[in-house]
Amino acid sequence: MKLGARILKTGIAIILALFLSQLLNLPAPVFAGIAAIFAIQPTIYRSYLSILEQLQANLIGAAVAIIFVLVFGNQIFIVGLAAVIVIIINLKLNSGNTIILSLVTVIAIMENQDGEFLQFALIRFFTIMLGILSAFIVNLVFLPPKYETKLYHKISTVAEDVFKWIRISTRHASDHSLLKNDVIRLKEQVIKLEQLYLMFKEEREYFKKDSYAKSRKLVVYRQMISTLKRSLDVLRRLNRFENEFHLMPSEFQMQIQEQLDCLVFQHEQLLLKFIGKIKTTVDYHESTTVSKKELLDMFLKQQDCLNEEHEACLYHMMPLVAAIIEYEEDIEHLYKLVNSFQNYHKDENEVSIPTSRVDE
């Protein structure tokens, strides 16, 4: 089990909220700790948005609670009715994520108390806001997320698995059922990759020149994910049409194997080139592969090489050949984007991906 940064930040936020509450001699500091739990977010930008949402939720809960206590009292039935009203208001404002905090505020203010009610309500409101602010400070200062590092390492890890299976499959050494299960797992990993990409996209840059580089990085990473999905599509088709591929002429199988070996090699080189692990002088065109037209012509010629019994295999090879061509086009586009990024940002914005992986 990994102890991620978000787990640590939640604990630190609770400690800070409780400490500040005790330092200010606020009654019931537990409400500050509860509010801090709800306010922890995976990115600094989301933390900023969360403060605005939580402030709104806290205000709604406090306003409804104060009005209900002043007008109807704080009997159990009234507390429940106030909670229903708060839920309805939050839903009307499309603030479903903050309903729980609003309810916590309602209960905190409407519980039995002694002394001046309005003063009590303001203290509880401030206590909850203190918890929210504590979480924001922790998000801003402690263990800021490094989503670019996590995104690149995740892309590399998934790509390595896909490359391994493509090489094994083209050599007829893969286990059909094992590969099928792994393809499903890899698809799930790609979905998580896209979520990480969104997290990285939400991170904000403080300087204008950095924002330009960030925009270019986003384009490159988006194409990395697109190219990875293409490679996974090739693998899925290799697995699906495994038997038909084995029945094709050996010359065709060898050509497909060589083509995919070259494409996988190019894909690997581009991932390493982006982070400066290989010489930037390495040329994409140094890898010798047949052109897309030559690959298509070779596929069409197979009709003369197959007997009637195996002629149906040719139709099943059409999706595989199409997937390989699309994969090659995505690699070509990725090559242009990586070169463009490195030419524009060679000195001022080098890509630095540490070898250690940060988990949250």
Question: Could you please describe the fold and organization of this structure?
Answer:
With 360 residues, the chain is an all-alpha fold. The chain has two domains: 5-141, no CATH class; 147-344, Phosphate transport system protein phou homolog 2, domain 2 (Methane Monooxygenase Hydroxylase, Chain G, domain 1, Up-down Bundle). It is built from 13 helices and no strands. The protein has helices at 5-23, 30-39, 44-72, 76-92, 99-110, 117-141, 147-170, 176-202, 208-240, 242-247, 250-274, 292-301, 312-344. The protein is elongated. The protein starts with a helix and ends in a 16-residue tail after the last helix. Mean pLDDT is 82; it is low at 356-360.
Summarize the structure.
The protein has 360 residues and is mostly helical.
Topology:
Elements: H1 5-23, H2 30-39, H3 44-72, H4 76-92, H5 99-110, H6 117-141, H7 147-170, H8 176-202, H9 208-240, H10 242-247, H11 250-274, H12 292-301, H13 312-344
Helix-and-strand structural type: mainly alpha
CATH architecture identity of the largest domain: Up-down Bundle
By CATH, the superfamily of the largest domain comes out as Phosphate transport system protein phou homolog 2, domain 2
The end-to-end span amounts to 12 Å
- The CATH C-level class name of the largest domain: Mainly Alpha
Instruction: List the uncertain runs.
Output: 356-360
Pattern of helices and strands: HHHHHHHHHHHHH
Helix residue percentage: over 70%
Strand content: under 5%
Shape: elongated
Give the CATH topology of the largest domain: Methane Monooxygenase Hydroxylase, Chain G, domain 1
